[in-house]
Amino acid sequence: MTLTTNIALTALIASAALASPVGNVRRDSAAAPICNLAWSNSGMQAKTDCTGAVVLFSDPLIPDPRVDGQRANGTTGEIMAYLSVGTVNPLYAPDPRLLDYQWQQNLDKNSEGELWGDFWFNPDDLNDHILPIMKDIISSYRALNYTAISTDNAKPSTAVTENDAQAKAYADTERIDPRYVEYLKNIIDFAHSLDMEVALKNPSYYVNEPTVIDEFDAYLVESLFNWYPWDIDVYGSLPYGPKPFWIFQYPGVNGLTNQELHDRMVERNLSKVYLDSEDGYVSYYAF
Length: 287
Ligand SMILES: *[C@@H]1O[C@H](CO)[C@@H](O)[C@H](O)[C@H]1NC(C)=O
Ligand SMILES: *[C@@H]1O[C@H](CO)[C@@H](O)[C@H](O)[C@H]1NC(C)=O
Ligand SMILES: *[C@@H]1O[C@H](CO)[C@@H](O)[C@H](O)[C@H]1NC(C)=O
Prior knowledge:
By secondary structure, this protein is α/β, with parallel strands linked by helices. It has one domain (7-285): TIM Barrel (Alpha-Beta Barrel). The protein contains eight helices and twelve strands. Strand 10 (245-249), helix 8 and strand 11 (272-277) form a beta-alpha-beta unit. The longest helix is centred in the middle third of the chain and has 18 residues, at 126-143. The two termini are 22 Å apart. The protein binds 2-acetamido-2-deoxy-beta-D-glucopyranose (3 copies). One 2-acetamido-2-deoxy-beta-D-glucopyranose binds at residues 68-69, 72-73.
């Protein structure tokens, strides 16, 4: 089955708008609604209705008046900055010094079938060379009143494991290379020293790293289906407690149908995801 018509998608969006959270709503997603202005597959994230959001998630390189307002007033709510800690894109480098450490190109493709254009860092450079630059970036975000960062690309990818035997050996056993674990621990400790929080994006595999998995303040999952389908399997197996666990879902990608999304959410006892749409992200409740 594939999602073949716009009618099907429209129906999905409409049900998302009308459905309300009743019954078994997870405490975390209900307690910390997030507005993702940082990224989406549709490119329409800026249209997201941020009314009621406790966390504004933004890319510091993409201005948004809502973020500016929150930043200047600095009173309620969180502002979380998108930060890719494992890669740098030469077109969007948050610090030009990172360009000195481009290593292997990210071979993942976007929805247009094109490369994203970012490069991975050599795992051997993470703690000695990349970390000090990341600390400067995080400090600069703190000065801009950001209260949290999210760690995009926080673990070795195919491009890394194909070019580094140690990273591959760990990935083969569903572990994270200790160089990444140490690096992430250093980033968390530094952010916490500035009174900032850290969200881990795509926590699968990190659940097998007990020295660091519980140190994060929130978790993000990008899609239950296509790129990281196993991420949702870690939900509930962890002592996450009330920490936010936000799930962003792309409808229609890889043939995802309304029914499949609904069934998967019910099967996982997952009430709510944020659905990528032409109107930005909308809350979608399976029950
Ligand atoms: C589903 O999750 C809710 C909390 O969100 C919990 O109260 C309930 O026991 C869960 N049900 C199952 C079958 O795990
Ligand atoms: C700060 O908040 C007030 C009231 O919520 C709002 O009117 C004002 O525009 C905000 N400041 C900025 C710079 O957006
Ligand atoms: C950060 O917030 C404070 C108020 O808490 C405000 O005075 C300051 O201008 C803000 N900084 C920026 C860069 O918006």
